[in-house]
Amino acid sequence: MSDKPRIGWLGAGRMGYDMAKCLARAGYDITVWNRTRAKAEPLAKEGAKIADNPFDLADCEVIFSMLATADDVNAVILGAHGLLSKSKPGQGGLPKMLVESTSISTEASADLRAALEEFGIQMLAAPVSGNAKVVKAGKLSFVVSGPKAAFDAAAPMLNEIGQEATWVGEGDLARVVKICHNVFLGVVIQSLAEITVLAEKAGVPRHAFLDFLNKSVMGSVFSRYKTPALVNLDMKVTFTPYLLRKDLDLGLAAARSLDVPMPLASIARDMVQAMMGN
User: Fold this and answer.
1) Is the C-alpha dihedral spanning 176, 182, 188, 194 positive or negative?
2) pTM score, whole prediction
């Protein structure tokens, strides 16, 4: 008999699909729900079960969720047909833990944590750094906050999905780290695109400029990762403008609440909005 916990997975979209596949391939008993069932069904070939409703996962020991927005999280977990819609606080057979990886605000995360506590369910805030390509390459990174004992219990599962999981403390601190990370991403990719166009307009081939940049003190894992797309003008979407705008908005809202000036982030957000409007 396996000592691995039974896992329920909520959300098999651009990120969640490949993350769930990692656990299925690692031999976990995993049941997956996705709003569009057809997107999750190929995971059955990896050994996963496919659920029709979120509440079908309520008897799993550990739940993972990777969704798009805070509204999605609340609907899928606490809503009328959500994970806990058929359950009552104090009853047995409920999940022990939710590992929640959606990029949401600290306020939304704290509200969810409080709601789960009424059911006796611990929550780890566990947003990630990376996209679907990064998941496939085994290089996804988690930043995690919540009860340390819960983190220690979840670590073997997180390590099957990604290369590293960093615990940053109790509560919802991981949300702050993730928001800061994605605001930085939005500013850096805007700057990287601008200087690459400047060099090209002056007559420098894109590949030569980026080769120099990557070998200089300004080079980074991110600039090297993005170089093939910039050189080949590969515009395939890895992170939608809608989601980037959402994360920039979360960062700017946090900055306002803490009186932190963020002029570069504000300009980057307006440029994403302008691009969407056009």
Assistant:
1) negative
2) 0.87
Give which of 14, 5, 263, 268 is closest to 136, Cα–Cα: 14
Instruction: Compute φ and ψ for 99, nearest 5 degrees.
Output: -105, 105
The string over 130-157, giving b where at least 16 C-beta atoms fall within 10 Å of a residue's C-beta and e elsewhere, is bbbebbeeeebbbbbbbbeebbebbeeb
| 3-state class (DSSP) for residue 122 | strand
Helix ranges restricted to H, 100-172: 106-117, 132-136, 148-161
Q: Other CB atoms closer than 10 Å to residue 200's CB: what's the count?
A: 14
Nearest Cα to Cα of residue 151 among 141, 160, 143, 161: 143
Quote the CA–CA distance of 177 and 160 in Å, as a whole number. 22
Is it the case that residue 1 has pLDDT exceeding 70? no
Q: State phi, psi for 125 to the nearest 5 degrees.
A: -80, 120
